[in-house]
Amino acid sequence: MLVPPPLFAMEAVPESSEQPVQQSLFGDPQPVRVPAELWELWLADEQVRARYEAKV
Hints:
Blueprint: H1 36-43, H2 46-55
């Protein structure tokens, strides 16, 4: 099973979830190619599949 690596160290994530974490992207949005193995992994979860189907 293919598991994506973490985007950043867990030590960088605040323990308190009271304050939302602000994230920003730099540059223009660009499409990305997602390997089929990751799609299968993500869409195996019913909650993820429901969110995906709600958006497309």
